[in-house]
Amino acid sequence: MTDEGQHQGPQKPLPELRASDADRDRVVERLRDALAEGRLDMEEFEERLESAYTSRTYAQLETLTRDLPAAGAAPAGVAAAGAAAAPAAGSWAGRIGGGVPAASATAVAVMSGFQRRGNWTVPGRFNAVAFWGGGELDLREAHFAEREVVINCIAIMGGIEITVPPGVDVDVRGIGIMGAFDQRHSTGPVAPGAPRVVVTGLAFWGGVDIKVKEPKRYPGLGGGPDLRKEL
């Protein structure tokens, strides 16, 4: 064998190689982690998600995670400054005491409805009122102003639905008069560093329903249909 044959290698540098579906899925998983940690907001996540599924090469995929730390690792400077003091709270570490300040600590629905969902910040005390109406508070992608937050619900001939992810510590203290505060499912073991959500208030001819659901799944993450063909 000649020296030329011994030293033959790929004619194209690695970044120009075609990416596989598995490569794209790995990038999506890192983007999902970054969303949960508060490194990306929902708009950035959706933009990069679409780009991930339309990327054809390693080079295109690499640009989507270039500004993110490696999976499970903090940036080198942060790790060197205080690895021993790093919180052991996993993805919750970036979601408590930060995020966009809450625009309002009150939501009111009178013969109407309100929603709080996606990347929003739950203040230390939040008041939700539904009178002949309904409200939805989805905490699965929310930030929390404090480790313990209180959601005070007043439901009069109306309903309020609160959705939390598994692992959150939920304490339901509300009073029902011809109504109910209903928590049908357990949140499971409390995750390290997870926030505590205290639900209190009054339900009169109405109801407050606390549901436990996994965070929303996105295409390619195993939750629901794969929508890559629609992108």
Automatic annotation (TrEMBL):
Pfam families: DUF1707
Region (Disordered): 1-25
Annotated ranges, domain DUF1707: 17-69
Protein name (database record): DUF1707 domain-containing protein
